[in-house]
Design goal:
The chain is of the alpha/beta class. The protein folds into two domains: about 120 residues, Rossmann fold (3-Layer(aba) Sandwich), CATH 3.40.50; about 120 residues, Hypothetical Protein Tm841, Chain: A,domain 3. The chain is about 40% helix and about 25% strand. The chain is built from ten helices and 14 strands. The strands form three sheets. Strands 8, 9, 10, 11, 12, 13 and 14 form a seven-stranded mixed β-sheet that branches. Helix 5 runs antiparallel to helix 6 and helix 8 packs parallel to helix 9. The longest helix has 16 residues. The protein is globular, with a radius of gyration of 18 Å. About 45% of the residues are buried.
């Protein structure tokens, strides 16, 4: 039986070592500073991006991969006759999945399943990782799809931003625009639901926002079942350290991955973003 291969895009923000370990194909989006175009995670790292962001006058923009770029990524997998599961950023946030679908049409390859995860960043990353682990264990395409949908349906993703300015200017603010014009030192806690960013609550000060992120997620899984946990940050390693410590004190993580927000997601979230992404362990559901 031919192996199942996993494809995603760079907004999954998965660390390079995991991408290589599981043979995941990553199609990069681009971040554009004026006339300079960088492929997310290829030509520019997260750290380089945030450094550049601090020193630029105009906000960078982002662009999705072309159907041609997807075709080039799929072609070697098609040639080896693999079953392909291609999992991507929410269609409500990017046109990336449209390019993937056009590439499938161009190639005329039937054994290619394209999934709108309705997620972004390491929430998407966890879906991709679970699918890749199932594929590496010799799972069929149907089994890989089952695992991916199990994670997509159960994942909880909450985050705080230092300011809503980046989401607003990048046009990705969604329902969170209700929080615009808030008082000084308000740190909005936001959630990702059905592919759209929603406001969850306003908190005063960063320390309180970190506490609330942990409390909210802990409250979603009160039964103590094993969980996959991802605390993540955008240019805030100190905040990540606090978040991770508090998370581990409250939640039983059967798998813990600390994540870094990449350039494309960082363009819209801005520096100072902290997130917690949690889902029940897809291979050890417990209760």
């Amino acid at each position: 039986m031919d192996r199942v291969k996993i494809v995603t895009d760079s907004t999954a923000d998965l660390p390079r070592d995991l991408v290589e370990k599981y043979g995941i194909t990553v199609v990069p989006l681009k971040v554009i500073f004026g006339q300079e175009i960088y492929r997310d995670g290829v030509d520019i790292t997260s750290r380089q991006f945030f450094e550049k962001l601090k020193n630029c006058r105009d906000l960078p923009t982002t662009s999705q991969p072309s159907p041609q770029e997807f075709s080039e990524a799929y072609r070697p997998l098609v040639e080896e006759g693999a079953g392909i599961v291609s999992i991507h950023i929410s269609s409500a946030l990017s046109g990336t999945i449209q390019s993937a679908r056009l590439a499938k049409t161009m190639l005329g390859y039937e054994d290619l399943e394209i999934i709108d995860s309705r997620l972004v960043s390491l929430a998407l990353g966890l879906v991709v990782l679970a699918a890749a682990q199932k594929a590496a264990a010799g799972g069929s395409k149907e089994e890989v799809l089952q695992v991916a949908h199990r994670v997509m349906d159960s994942i909880q993703a909450y985050f705080m931003v230092d300011t809503l300015e980046y989401l607003q200017r990048g046009g990705r603010i969604g329902k969170a625009q209700a929080f615009l014009g808030s008082l000084l030192n308000i740190k909005p806690v936001l959630m990702l639901h059905e592919g759209i960013i929603y406001p969850y609550e306003k908190t005063r000060g960063k320390a309180r926002a970190i506490d609330r992120l942990v409390e909210i997620v802990a409250g979603k899984f009160p039964d103590g079942r094993p969980l996959w946990c991802v605390p993540a940050h955008g240019d805030d390693p100190e905040g990540l350290e606090q978040l991770e410590k508090k998370l581990q004190n409250r939640i039983s993580c059967s798998y813990l991955l600390t994540g870094e927000i990449g350039p494309v997601v960082g363009t819209h979230g801005g520096p100072g973003l902290l997130a917690i992404i949690v889902c029940p362990d897809p291979f050890n559901p417990g209760n």
